[in-house]
């Protein structure tokens, strides 16, 4: 009986990467899936992961009928998962957090770079340039990119000042938001027209005194940190380029030592 080609993982499971270049009808897929599960069960395998490209979405029903469930989805594929043993599964959950940044950029006069957005919850208030960290992007790189995109100001990353974690945010996921300090390399603002209404350099004291900003306990605390940093009364976390222990992938360690 024909079974699927699969890659074994380090946790007693297997992964099947379905190829969009190899079309398959639901009947053949179901037949091979049943035979494959039987084979993997005999081999003592546990978790079964099927990466299904969007071109093969018609196979989802057959997999679900065999007990597979959705693990996560991206723009071009769906990841389905199945647990063979008759015990509670120990499969990891989907990614639980979204990561965002806000940027404190101070010029030589001690003024901070602020923007007003055209839409969203923060309209009508001067705020830090903010944005979402993209997949595979480092926090320090994301902060530099977002500032440049929104204001045209080129910067160098200095440090992470603080961060907050919240829950049940976008799509029910948790959210991490890092406030980063950046050093400007130029000072002439060229704002992004699509999302930004206004952008300017502003005294931190004026920023911190905004009535609408002070309605938020979180925003007030962030403003206090910005003021303390301006007065050299606060130390954040600098980025140290290093490598991971086993795979030796490059990564950043943020530290204040």
UniProtKB/TrEMBL annotation:
InterPro entries documented for this protein: Nudix_hydrolase (IPR020476), NUDIX_hydrolase-like_dom_sf (IPR015797), Nudix_hydrolase6-like (IPR003293), NUDIX_hydrolase_CS (IPR020084), NUDIX_hydrolase_dom (IPR000086), Pre-Nudix (IPR040618)
GO MF annotation, one: ADP-ribose diphosphatase activity
Gene it is expressed from: LOC107786910
CDD domains tied to this protein: NUDIX_ASFGF2_Nudt6 (cd04670)
Organism: Nicotiana tabacum
Descriptive protein name: Nudix hydrolase 2-like
Family: Belongs to the Nudix hydrolase family.
Domain Nudix hydrolase, residue spans: 96-224
SUPFAM superfamilies assigned to the protein according to its UniProt record, in alphabetical order: Nudix (SSF55811)
One Pfam family, short name: NUDIX
Keywords: Hydrolase, Metal-binding
The UniProt record lists the keyword Cytoplasm: no
């Amino acid at each position: 009986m024909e079974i699927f080609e699969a890659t074994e993982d380090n946790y007693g499971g297997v992964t099947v990467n379905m190829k969009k270049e190899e079309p398959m009808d639901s009947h053949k897929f179901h037949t091979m899936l049943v035979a494959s599960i039987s084979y993997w069960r005999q081999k003592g395998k546990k978790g079964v992961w099927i990466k299904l490209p969007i071109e093969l979405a018609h196979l989802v029903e057959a997999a679900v009928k065999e007990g597979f469930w959705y693990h996560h989805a991206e723009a071009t594929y769906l990841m389905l998962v199945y647990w063979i043993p008759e015990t509670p599964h120990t499969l990891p959950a989907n990614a639980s957090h979204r990561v965002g940044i806000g940027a404190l950029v101070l010029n030589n006069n001690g003024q901070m770079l602020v923007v007003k957005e055209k839409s969203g919850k923060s309209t009508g208030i001067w705020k830090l340039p903010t944005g979402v960290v993209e997949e595979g992007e480092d926090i320090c790189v994301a902060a530099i990119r977002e500032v440049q995109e929104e204001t045209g100001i080129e910067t160098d990353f200095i440090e992470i000042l603080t961060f907050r974690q919240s829950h049940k945010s976008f799509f029910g996921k948790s959210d991490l938001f890092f406030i980063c300090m950046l050093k400007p390399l130029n000072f002439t603002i060229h704002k992004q027209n699509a999302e930004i209404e206004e952008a300017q350099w502003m005294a931190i004291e004026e920023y911190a005194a905004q009535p609408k900003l002070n309605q938020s306990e979180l925003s007030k605390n962030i403003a206090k940190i910005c003021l303390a940093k301006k007065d050299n009364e606060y130390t954040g976390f600098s980025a140290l380029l290093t490598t991971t222990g086993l795979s030796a992938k490059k990564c950043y360690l943020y530290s204040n030592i």
